[in-house]
Amino acid sequence: LESWLETHERAFKELPDDWYKYVRSLTDLPVVSRMRLVVELLTKYGWTLDGLQVTGIPHPDGRKLPQKEFIKEYSAITLPNTKLQRFFIRPKERRLP
């Protein structure tokens, strides 16, 4: 996330439009620009905090969820993508342990 944000910001002088979709917690944010990004999450994208604890993250379907529930449900959305069969399957004798 950090490299992508920095590269995009250098090239286009602004953050990517969908950067907030990849943030699951405050620790995902780059340390150098964390406060600026947290302010943007709070004001522009509807996150809520209690001190340093995330208390609400808007889910893509419109609900606002606590951080743990958001991560659990948002991970379930992407789960079918990880269940895809591999394009190239190695023979058993050539597989790494």
Explain this structure to me?
This protein is an alpha+beta fold and 97 residues long. It has one domain. Helix content is 39%, strand content 11%. The chain has 3 helices and 3 strands, in the order ααβββα. It has helices at residues 2-12, 34-44, 67-82; strands at residues 48-50, 53-58, 64-65. A 3-stranded antiparallel beta sheet has the order 1-2-3. A hairpin with a 2-residue loop joins strand 1 and strand 2 (53-58). The two termini are 30 Å apart.
- Overall body shape: globular
Percent helix range: 25-40%
Strand order of the largest sheet: 1-2-3
Q: How large is the radius of gyration?
A: 17 Å
Number of strands: 3
Identify low-pLDDT runs.
none
Main β sheet profile: 3 strands, antiparallel
Tell me the number of helical segments per DSSP (H or I, 4 or more residues long): 3
Give a concise summary.
The mean pLDDT is 82. The protein is α+β, with helices and mostly antiparallel strands and 97 residues long.
Structure characteristics:
3 strands; 97 residues; alpha+beta; three-stranded antiparallel sheet
SSE map:
Blueprint: H1 2-12, H2 34-44, E1 48-50, E2 53-58, E3 64-65, H3 67-82
Antiparallel strand pairs: 1-2, 2-3
